[in-house]
Amino acid sequence: MQAIGDWFQRLYDTTGLNFSVFYDAYDWGRYLGGLKMTLLLSVTTILLSLIVGAIGALMQGSPSALLRLPVNAFVVVFRNTPPLVQLFFFYFGLGTMLPAVEAAGMRVPLLSNVQWAIISLSLFAGAFNVEIFRSGIEAVPRTTLEAAEALGYTRLKAYIHIVLPLAIRVCLPALNNNLVNLLKTTTLAYAIAVPETLYAVKQIWSESQNVFEMMVVLLATYGILVGILVWMMHRWERAMHIPGYAR
Amino acid sequence: MATSWTPDQPIVQCVDVRKSFGALEVLKGISLSVRKGEVICIIGPSGSGKSTLIRCINALQPITSGSIQIEGIEVTDPRLDKLALRRKVGMVFQQYNLFPHRTALQNVMMAPIHVLGQKRAEVEARARALLAKVRLAGKEDTYPGELSGGQQQRVAIARSLAMRPDIMLFDEVTAALDPETVKEVLVTIRELAEDGMTCILVTHEMNFAREVADHVYFTDRGVIVEHGPPDVLFTAAKDERTQRFLSQVL
Asked: Which Pfam families does the record cross-reference, listed alphabetically (chain B) (predicted)?
């Protein structure tokens, strides 16, 4: 580790390229903190958006209009408005209307900016996931469902054992895209001062005057994070491959 | 709901069954009865309502009026326990409709485990025996997409049998098969019939119908034109429509 720090220190001394995060412990700490926050945002919003998508798609396929209507309204609202505006709406709009609570002798908002970012981004990506799951569910042949029905499966049991496993395989490529977008969209949390990677890196370049170098670090960071996500999704896709199933 | 059914009564009893899709009446008063262990073939031109009829028998489609009783269970009862009905009635489709994400063995095991809650080990032993019975021993771990049409159809038959039904419905099960694989499926069905399974077949295989059926029904435009033992119906049909149909297909 020391060698890497020394190398970047020398790079700065000889060329003026200041990658302060790699030799300055304080900058490194801030960068690492930002990275952890980005990972927290990404993992929780991906999981929550998948749950929103699965429940939404099940409700959307229901015979009852009472269940279908709210889902359709939700999808329209969250798909037709910009995610940054949604984030502001939740944090500045709803956030200020909620009562404050007592914590450690201080009056603090009921939900923190991190929690609002998670809620807002999960709903945003979840709306897209509803539509993605629906496309997969609609690709399951009606006759396959009929066979399940003739074997005594109820709607819910058929959904769990037959429809979802087939639907998820059909919609994985689209889901893949949406989750990649979601990971990148977590940078919007910057706008409500969530200390994620973009926020941390911006603080570093303001103080160390190394905008170009930190921009490179920032782009590389997201490039690698998305690379890891895509690799995991492809592994999942391969694990779910069905021999001889030509869809 | 009549529950006092005894095996000497018809196992399937349809009385004046009518079924409309919008303004189109597909079944115009069908009555037939099947005794336990009997093999019934329903033949007739395309669009005569054959498939609709057997889909109505296991309540995949509701009928407009009339009565269908399976072992005394009234299928048209709004409080019908569909699970109870489907335990008694197995169905095999033209397009096999196997679950593509599960192996042949898993396809056979799924419903008894998920629907009837039976023990995995016991179901697996039964499923292996059923696959052997339809001559697919060795194909247990193969996925449907890797099997030929005839093999898939035999898995579908084993899958239905795993639920231990009293009646099997076959909806044009050889219509989508290559000519050379038709035979292997028909052999399987004939063995079932010989074992005493009550079978209702919608089929275009006239020679097969003639050979295995106890009774043949000829339908045209939503009515049963005539019915009788195959020897009589195929050689001495009384109705002119039956004669014309038979002369075209035989």
From this structure: ABC_tran (PF00005)
Q: Which are the contacts of B212, defined by CB distance < 8 A and separation ≥ 6? A: B39, B41, B189, B190, B193
ipTM of the complex: 0.89
Residue B95 at interface with chain A, using a CB cutoff of 8 Å: yes
- Six-digit token pair at B210? 């003639």
CATH architecture assigned to B35-57+83-249: 3-Layer(aba) Sandwich (3.40)
CB atoms within 10 A of CB A107: 9
SS3 A72: helix
Nearest CB to A153 within list B89, B90, B114: B114
Q: Name the residue ranges covered by the structural domains of chain A.
A: 2-239
A244/B146 touch (CB, cutoff 8 Å), yes or no: yes
Report domain extents, chain B.
35-57+83-249
- Homologous superfamily, domain A2-239: MetI-like (1.10.3720.10)
What is the bridge-based pairing of β-strands B198-202 and B167-171? parallel
Question: Which residues in chain B have their CB less than 8 angstroms from residue A239's CB?
Answer: none
pTM across the whole model: 0.81
Per-residue model confidence as pLDDT tens digits over A94-110? 988 888 887 777 878 88
